[in-house]
Specification:
- The chain is an alpha/beta fold and about 230 residues long.
- It is built from ten helices and seven strands.
- The protein has a seven-stranded mixed sheet with strand order 3-2-1-4-5-7-6, with helices on both faces.
- α1 packs across α2, α4 packs parallel to α6 and α9 runs antiparallel to α10.
- It is elongated and about 60 Å long.
- It starts with 7 loop residues before the first helix and ends with a helix.
- The relative contact order is 0.11.
């Protein structure tokens, strides 16, 4: 049996899957996470979905190599539209943009709303994903940071609870409240990196004029102040 070696990001995502669950891995690519969890007997069964034939074929080869065909269903299609209600207990949607994750959740609300837990790992626009979750009845259960090479990744565990639209300070769309409450070991590095990014954007505006530029400068300064406040709490 060939055990899959996961990267730090994938290993962290895998660690958040609860034992003895039926799992869907959406945008599965090579199927590394479900194969790893099945080999460890952590999960009962997995549905591997991808919108592209190439990655799904890669996943099929990985599943076959590990002799897991009887515990896996491979499905070609878009997002969670490949799933029916109550087919799985937990869903991973990782390695894609926050806006795309929003669209995936909207495209099949029957599944998104009845799943025990969603494990989401946005590569871009995590603030848009958090805003969507807060405004559309989801409860953020927990959040995590993981470092892989030179990048910090955000992982959100959530579930739909039909909550009223939650109105929160905009800075908490950027820096998850759970990261602060848990005092995540990588939190300070994460905030400092956000400050650097905003300061770099601010520098690029030097010497430029106009109302739009002034408005952008004011927004960036406000965000930097809010991030510094979080850093100094």
């Amino acid at each position: 049996m060939k055990y899959v070696k996961l990267t730090d990001r994938l290993l962290k995502i895998a660690s958040l899957v609860d034992k003895d669950k039926r799992l869907a891995d959406i945008g599965t690519d090579h199927g590394y996470i479900p194969v790893y969890l099945l080999n460890k007997n952590t999960i009962q069964y997995a549905i591997l979905g991808d919108v592209n034939k190439g990655p799904l074929e890669n996943a099929r080869k990985e599943v076959t190599r590990n002799k897991l065909q009887d515990k896996v269903d491979l499905r070609l299609g878009s997002g969670i539209e490949v799933l029916k209600e109550n087919e799985v207990d937990e869903i991973i949607i990782a390695g894609m943009g926050g806006m795309l994750i929003n669209d995936i959740l909207k495209a099949n609300e029957a599944v998104a709303h009845t799943t025990e837990k969603l494990i989401l790992q946005p590569m871009q626009a995590p603030e848009e994903l958090r805003m969507f979750l807060y405004k559309n009845g989801y409860k953020i259960i927990d959040e995590h940071l993981v470092r892989e090479e030179h990048r910090l990744y955000e992982i959100i565990e959530c579930k739909y609870e039909g909550l009223k639209e939650q109105d929160i300070e905009p800075i908490y769309y950027e820096i998850g409240l759970k990261l602060i409450q848990n005092n995540d070991p990588l939190l300070n590095d994460f905030i400092e990196n956000k400050i650097r990014i905003n300061q770099n954007v601010l520098k690029k505006l030097e010497g430029k004029e106009g109302q739009g530029i002034e408005d952008k400068r004011a927004t960036l300064n406000k965000k930097i102040d809010a991030l510094n406040d979080l850093l100094n709490k």
